[in-house]
Automatic annotation (TrEMBL):
<dbReference type="Pfam" id="PF25764">
    <property type="entry name" value="KIF21A_4th"/>
</dbReference>
<protein>
    <submittedName>
        <fullName>KIF27 protein</fullName>
    </submittedName>
</protein>
<keyword id="KW-0175">Coiled coil</keyword>
<feature type="coiled-coil region">
    <location>
        <begin position="18"/>
        <end position="144"/>
    </location>
</feature>
Length: 178
């Protein structure tokens, strides 16, 4: 009778252990599923952050090209102005017998020179405004890239922690089974 009693107690105890083990197994499975999902979400977020960084670099490149183009146009306008001034001076130093012709040419060159000066001023102003605007946007982008980079590092660290947890959980589960 004692043997049967002992066997029954052992059987009940073993069944309880099995039930506990199954419960831990289900919990571990659930936890691993959650962690795997978490990792997947974080990896997607990292991809998005990388994409954002590339977009920002592309915008920055476009701005640099635009500034270079504006600077070239500005230099061109300055050259045109210098050329017009030189031709006007040459004209004024010439001894023209035809005074009305000389006056007409001088008037024409002065008009050209004023137009060229205005163009240079406009382009200088536009260039200054664009450079200021681009510097501001570049600063904003730089700040955003730093933030995104920081987020990316954080997420990568979290993913590593999650993967470590999965490994530890799996090993604990295995050691429970034995």
């Amino acid at each position: 009778g004692e043997e049967i009693d002992s066997l029954q107690k052992s059987h009940v105890f073993n069944m309880q252990k099995l039930k506990n083990s199954e419960l831990r197994f289900t919990e571990a499975e659930q936890k691993m599923r959650e962690l795997a999902l978490n990792i997947k979400m974080k990896e997607e977020l990292i991809k998005e952050l990388v994409r954002t960084g590339k977009d920002a670099q592309s915008v920055s490149r476009q701005y640099s090209l635009k500034i270079t183009k504006l600077e070239q146009e500005f230099e061109q306008a300055k050259m045109e102005l210098a050329e017009t001034q030189k031709r006007l001076q040459e004209l004024e130093s010439k001894e023209l017998r035809d005074i009305p012709e000389k006056a007409k040419l001088q008037k024409e060159f002065r008009k050209k020179m004023d137009a060229a000066k205005l163009k240079v001023q406009r382009q200088a102003t536009e260039l200054e405004q664009n450079v200021a605007q681009m510097k501001h946007q570049q600063t904003q982008l730089q700040k955003r890239l730093c933030e995104e980079s920081e987020k990316k590092k954080q997420l990568e660290a979290e993913i590593q922690r999650d993967q470590q947890q999965i490994k530890v959980g799996f090993f604990l589960f295995l050691s429970d089974k034995e």
